[in-house]
Amino acid sequence: MKILVIGASGVLGSAVARELSARHEVISASRNGDVKVDVKDVDSIRAMFKTVGEVDAVVSAAGKVHFGPLKDMTADLMAVGVKDKLMGQVNLVLEGTPYVRDGGSFTLISGILGHDPIRAGSSASLVNGAIDSFVKAAAIELPRGIRINAISPTVFEESMEGYGPFFRGYKPVPVADAALAYSKSVEGAQTGQVYRV
């Protein structure tokens, strides 16, 4: 397969690219990658797909959200995650569908906070929950047998130094475990699923 991995330079994206490149042709895209893309910018997404051309799968490991107490949250801070992680990935699907071959797939990233919230995580909960719902709805409308799933991981072992204080009591997982879930989505047959890792 020819697989486009967006966010391939990050902790998760690099693990996903390693996992999939053992069996497939992987094209890495990120703000600073082989192929440049800023998911907040629809024109950038369009340019990326024009550059890459047809693919069998689009995989996203990209998206930022703001962590902070709800009492300090503003519309601009909430919009960080809505514009980046949520609409960035929605736009990957909207703009990318014509470039995904028949029977291909999209795999998006959400996260545990969509169903198991924490303090200072209201933006992440909003965005992750919306992504999971979008995947379930899009699965019944995507054309030409194209599938779509989401990966919903807990905090990664590799990210505990920065995120550990937010996730007290959560069992971290190796990022390689999430990469396996991407393989299940890309190489499997299911659609409309949210894979919790």
Structure described in brief:
The protein is built from six helices and seven strands, in the order βαββαβαβαβααβ.
Supply the number of helical segments: 6
Helix content: 25-40%
Order of helices and strands: EHEEHEHEHEHHE
First-last Cα distance: 24 Å
Major sheet: order of its strands? 3-2-1-4-5-6-7
Q: Describe the sheet with the most strands.
A: 7 strands, parallel
Radius of gyration: 16 Å
Mean pLDDT: 97
Number of strands: 7
Structural class designation: alpha/beta
Strand content: 15-25%
Global shape: globular
Low-confidence stretches: none
Q: Would you write up a description of this structure?
A:
This protein is of the alpha/beta class and 197 residues long. Helices cover 40% and strands 20% of the residues. The chain contains six helices and seven strands; from the N terminus they run βαββαβαβαβααβ. It has helices spanning 11-21, 42-52, 75-96, 122-138, 160-163, 175-187; strands at 2-6, 25-30, 35-36, 55-60, 100-109, 147-152, 193-196. The radius of gyration is 16 Å and the shape is globular.
Key terms:
197 residues; 20% strand; 6 helices; globular; seven-stranded parallel β-sheet; alpha/beta
Question: Layout of helices and strands, plus pairs?
Answer:
Blueprint: E1 2-6, H1 11-21, E2 25-30, E3 35-36, H2 42-52, E4 55-60, H3 75-96, E5 100-109, H4 122-138, E6 147-152, H5 160-163, H6 175-187, E7 193-196
Parallel strand pairs: 1-2, 1-4, 2-3, 4-5, 5-6, 6-7
